[in-house]
Amino acid sequence: MKLTGGQIVAKALKANGVDYVAGMPGDGSWALVEALLTAGTDIPFIQVMQEQSSVHLADGYFRACGRPMAVLLPVPPAISKALGAMAAALADSSAMLIISGDSAVQRPATLAPGITKEHVQVSAIEQLPRALRQAFDTMLSGRVGPVSLEIAQAVQTASLDVSLAPATLRASSEVQRPDPRLKTAGPDEHPAARWVEDSTIDVPALTVHKPLAELRAVLESDAMLVIGAGRIQAIAREMFPLDNPGNHLCTGRVSTLGWAVPAAIGAKLAMPARQVVCAVGDGDFLQSMQEMAVCVMHSIPVVFLVFNNSGYVSLSDVQVPVVEQHRAGEFNLPDGKPYSPDFAGIARNFGLEAWRVEHASQLNPTFIKALNSKGPSLVEVITARGSRVN
């Protein structure tokens, strides 16, 4: 049997239980994309809008179910815009196989250490089966993490006269992860639910606490909340149970802006039967909101909860102005008035159902509509600007 390098990659992914590949094709990887879409070796390919989002998506997927995805980069890792995303996955022990072709330009320096657990360049098709098997062994043994393979374009298109049984491509390592399907305490057992009961009146400016409490009251017990960077993480830890790590996902050692949106998409792919809500600040959301298009194209029903306070206001806590002045992190117009995009309107233009909430009385019915939506949806909540108020 003759197999191309691309087909060998696809067979290895199937043998190791990879259900999805996320990424962007490039000049050096078309043969890989073709193999992924070929009947018999086909694996669903989730094309993202920015390459770093593919790594964040695979990160969220692994955190949700404990199984690795594959990522396809349009350029070699050493010149990829996804380097920060790879470093975040390594810091938080998320396993994934990052695949790329070779570069059409002059070869850059070797990938800096500390970005992935291992980086291997495959220059001959005879090396490919062993390199793939070793990659899965490396990523899943010891402290798990991402591994990258740079496969030359000539290797992808070359043919090898070989019969490869799945067992010859399957890694021997296994990773033991907490079962994310375990239930957590019901709303009546959690302070957030009691907070809702004590806070039934509208207030002039909402804070993050009230929407999160209302959300907790209507979520199913096994729902997953994917939290963005910043002050919102600390508030969510106070208001949501943490006894089951599979119900609360956030970046750990590296608080990465732009992580939550693609990570929530990955979590929903991993656990399609569970509710997945991405709670994120407006500045964080602006880093990766283009990935809403992925949800629409693939019918992935994530609920995005965007807290709009016109800026990276949590960053302003490090600045204490002596006199009245604009604080670092705020989004302002030249005349000093707060600036904010219409996130609900943007989401509708992407093809999502979307709502804008300005009063507490709107929260409960809006969350119910969003959670019952058949496709992706977005709830924009206007919140008080001062992060200390939040």
UniProtKB/TrEMBL annotation:
* Stated name of the protein: Acetolactate synthase
Keyword Ubl conjugation on entry? no
Q: What positions does the domain Thiamine pyrophosphate enzyme N-terminal TPP-binding occupy?
A: 4-106
Naming one, the record's GO cellular component terms include:
acetolactate synthase complex
The family this protein is said to belong to: Belongs to the TPP enzyme family.
Q: Name one Pfam family in it.
A: TPP_enzyme_C
Q: Which GO terms describe its molecular function?
A: acetolactate synthase activity; flavin adenine dinucleotide binding; thiamine pyrophosphate binding
**Thiamine pyrophosphate enzyme TPP-binding domain location, by residue?**
228-381
Tell me the Gene Ontology biological-process terms attached to this UniProt entry.
isoleucine biosynthetic process; L-valine biosynthetic process
Q: Is RNA-binding tagged as a keyword?
A: no
Xref: InterPro entries: THDP-binding (IPR029061), Thiamin_PyroP_enz_TPP-bd_dom (IPR012001), TPP_enz (IPR045229), TPP_enzyme_TPP-bd (IPR011766)
> What keywords tag this UniProt record?
Thiamine pyrophosphate
